[in-house]
Structure formats: C-alpha cells, structure tokens
Amino acid sequence: MVRPTISIGRNVEGRNVINTAHGHPGLIDVHTHAIDPALPDLSTTYPQDRWPRVDQISETDATLVFGGSAYRKIDHRCWSPRARIADMDRDGVALQVLSPIPVTFCYEASAAGAAELAASQNDFFARLVTDHPLRFAALGGVALQDPDRAIDELRRCVRQLGFLGVEIATQVNGTELADPCLDEFFAVAHELDALILVHPSDQDLTPRLPGLRLSFGAGMPLETTIAAAGLVGSGALTRRPYVRLCLAHGAGALPAVIGRLDKGAMMAGLDPGSADRPRTVARQLWCDSITYDRLALDAAIALFGEDHVVFGSDYPFPAMPKPLDDVVAQLPIELFRKISRTNLENHHGALPRSGPHPLPVAGRH
C-alpha cells in the first residue's frame, strides 16, 4: 500500500490548504454521524418504549422516525460509503470517525432494547470500517442506562470491533455524567484507552427554547455546558482515572463560563491554588472544533490547550460548517495541523485498531 504524502500551505486568501499525493487529502473528522438504514424493529418486543426507525423514501432519501413520529429527513450520506467518500474527497477529509445519531441512544427506554439497538448499529459501523479501513473509523453506542451492559458493549467495541471508543449523551435519562454510578464505566474506558465523544441529545432544557427557536443555537451547547460544568466542578474527573472525554460543539459555553465556575468554587471555600479548581480540572478535557466562530474556537483552545482540540464537522447534517474547515483553516499552520489531524494521531494510539490509516500513528506523548 502506498501511503499519501501530506503537506500544508496557505492559499492566496490566507487559508490553510492541504496538498496531497496519491489522491488522499489530510483531515481527520472526529465528529460525523451515520445510521443503519435497516435498524431492528424493537416496537413489537418493547412496545412500551419509543424507538427509531428509518423509513426509506427512495434509494437516496429517507425519514428518520422516532416513536412513530417523523424526527428528521436524512439521505444516503448517512449510510452509503460511496456517497460519504465522494464528499470526503471533495472536502479534503482523509478519515471520518463514524458515530450514532443521538436520537438512537434511547437511554429512557428498556436497557435490553437499547443494548440490542446499540449492538446492531455498532455491527453496521464495523462493516463500513472493515470494508473501507483507510477512510473510516468508529465510535460506537452503548446502553448507558445500564452501566453493566454499557461496559460489556464498550469492551466489545474496542477489543472486538476495533473502534476508537464510544459516543455518549450529556446525561443519562436524568443521571449526570458526574454521578458515581458511572464511575465503573469510565474506569473501563480508561483501561481500554477509549475515546469518549460527549454529544447532547436534549435540546430543550426549558420550554422557553422552542418558542424562541433556540433549540439548536442555545439548547444543544447549553446541555453540553451543564454536563461539562458538572464534571469539572463535582470532583468526578479527579475521582476517576483519566479518560479522553471529547466535548462536542467546542464544549458549548464552558470556555465562556469557566471563570464564573472558578469564582463559585472559591466562594464555596476552594483554595485558589487547588488542583481541584475547575479551570485546572478542565485541562483534562478535549473538544471538537465545531464552533462556527474563530473567537469561540480560540477560547476553547485557550481552556483545553492546543493539543486537546480535534477537527469535527457534524457531517452529513445541515449544521456542517461551509466550507467544512471554515474556522480551523484560519489558524496558524502548525495549530491547523494539530487540530486537523495530528492531535488524534499523537494522543490516541487506537487508530490502527480499525486497520491501516492514511498516516502512521506517532508515538504517544
């Protein structure tokens, strides 16, 4: 196999561009979504719960249905490797990390059914990765409402399917990620060196949001903010072994409120020099680059460090930046290089588990 040669330079507009040989572009996209168009029908076995299904309209179009009601329109980019790879080649993406669409988490449903759904989707992702190991890696799903089942599936995802880790929601049917009942799950994630993408699934924290049309603009990032603030302020991250927790959408508003979290902790008696200071604890976390705004991305980089930010796009949904690297392409070249691919390569040695990838993984730091 001939590996691509990758170099980065600037175009006449001052944007970073990736120049490649052998036809392979260079971005690693850590935040993309996919779905099996043939999800298992769980409504008969677990009729008391709401489940997702995909209603095919044509070869290229479908409706994602949840609990019997239309949830959103989707198309073949959600399941077709050919369509995805064509877009990747157009957009300069070498590797996509596939993850579930959050509505399929089903944490409020039967744990047995949610585990069956997660396993089925994970098997679908595994087939895509096996068939296209140079272009896809994956983060699986787990039934986190039952930590024991979630641990079993997490182990299967990493050890048997070769996934980088899993994607989870910002809360588990009302249980916060900082809750001690999830300590064992995160301990196993540490043991497996798994990457955990934390993605909001509840856009409507308050009934005010839909009326103001703020579910997307404020609801999703606020959900992430609350989960992240709980993690950095509760002692959960110092209590647990280190896990690569990557907060979706630039960590929401956490970079903007970290000073207030620090002040609140000190008002409650925390010593300013304590290792438990929220700002200090937050340095353990990662985030993706989906901010749509250079100042917001700069704030995330300042909080987490330039080695803890990775490129994401939300492909294939309308929330994708246009162009895909719209904000990160404005960064200094070396920082662009880190966020667009080498941060994941340097800090996550799991990439080869899914097969050979466009560039060799660098040594762990």
TrEMBL record:
Residues 28-335 form the Amidohydrolase-related domain. It is an enzyme of class 4 (lyase). One of its GO terms (biological process) is secondary metabolic process. Residues 346-365 are annotated as: Disordered. Monomer. It holds the Pfam family Amidohydro_2. Belongs to the metallo-dependent hydrolases superfamily. ACMSD family. It comes from the Bacteria. The keyword Repressor does not apply. Its EC number is 4.1.1.45. It comes from Mycolicibacterium hodleri. Gene3D superfamilies: Metal-dependent hydrolases. InterPro entries: ACMSD, Amidohydro-rel, Metal_Hydrolase. Coiled coil: none annotated. This is 2-amino-3-carboxymuconate-6-semialdehyde decarboxylase.
